Amino acid sequence: MADANPDQVPTETAATDAAATAAEAEANAARNETRKVWLIRLAVAVGVAALLFALWYLLIGRNNVSTDNAYVNAEVAQITPLVSAQVVAVNVTDTQMVKRGDLLVRLDDTNMRIALAQAEADLARARRKFGQATATSSALAAQIDARGADIVQARAQLASAQADYEKARVDYDRRQALAPSGAVSGDELTSARKGFAAAKAALDLAHAGVLQAQSTRGAAASEYAANQALVAGSTVNTDPDVLSAIARRDAAKLDVERAIIRAPIDGVVTKRMVQVGMRVAQGSPIMTIVPLDKVYVEANFKERQLRRVKIGQPVTLTADLYGGSVVYHGKVAGFSGGTGSSFALIPAQNATGNWIKIVQRVPVRVALDPKELAEHPLRVGLSMEAEVDISGN
User: CA distances (Å), 240 to each of 117, 123, 136, 228, in order?
Assistant: First the structure.
């Protein structure tokens, strides 16, 4: 058996190595080709995505501003009693729907009814007093006429006394002139002197009578004027005392009516804090009513987003409660008077210089379509996403 050619082995090995190297090169070339194809595809995909984004921004994106920092809100009605009393009945519970005018709470009105009865009695007394004052005016007017007649009578008596005085004076003077000649006795002269003195006294009394009659008439006239000042230009329904009594009566009647607390709006009862037997204080909140048919959305947009947002622009909204399948349509109703941080319980203090600028958000009120609210009710505090169409700007 002949031995193999020693030069043949290296040749075969070299051929094998060359074949392996060629295969590896071919595999690397294939991989590079595949990589190139995928890179081209990726570049095309990125380009298409960029083009689509550019088209979306040009056609839609630049004409819309959106935020997910939005929540449902409402002008709730806080129920507070207007009088202090004990609760005798509570007719509603939390989550209960109520209509405007429905009875919510009844308070004990015993003391209020007593006060009403007292006020009505005071009113009747005031009306009677006015009638008495009117009658007094008539009586005082009659007294003035009577005092005028007394003055006439006193003046007549004065005239009579004056005539008697003149006659007595003449008689006395005549007798006094005849006394030295003895034609008149001393007794006759004394009698004439007494008659003259009596006539003078009667004259003075008549003068005093006239003055007294005039003074009495003046007092009656003053009393009449004072009484007329109370009733002149007034009737039993316009007299100040009567009006004051009517006001007190109406206030007492109002307190009785306020013992029954009714719903001021349609809505859902929330946060009921009253129980039977409690004594509620005037002005203390006892429950809240949320008007679900009048809720709105408060969307907090970044300050830079509001450059082209105006009142009346359309808004599309979705609620986390229903998801994207339910879309609400509303309009921008107004803007808050300041940013959210400005009205926080602890406002930001930036005057020290140690601050970091933070993008502020401004609350924007969005009014919703009542029909859509009726179909898909919302609750206060629910999260919303809002998108404002500013293309019409």
Answer: 20, 11, 18, 14
Q: Is 40 helix (H, G, I), strand (E, B) or coil?
A: helix
As its CATH architecture, domain 77-108+259-289 has Beta Barrel (2.40)
pLDDT in tens, 233-278: 667 777 788 889 999 999 999 999 999 999 999 999 999 999 999 9
The CATH class of 63-75+291-343+356-389 is: mainly beta
Per-residue pLDDT reduced to its tens digit, 137-170: 677 677 777 777 777 777 788 788 788 778 777 7
Superfamily of domain 112-254: Helix Hairpins (1.10.287.620)
- As a whole number of angstroms, the distance between CA 288 and CA 286 comes to 7
Helix (H) or strand (E) holding 288: strand 287-290
Query: What values do phi and psi take at 315, rounded to 5?
Result: -135, 135
Q: Which pTM does this prediction carry? A: 0.63
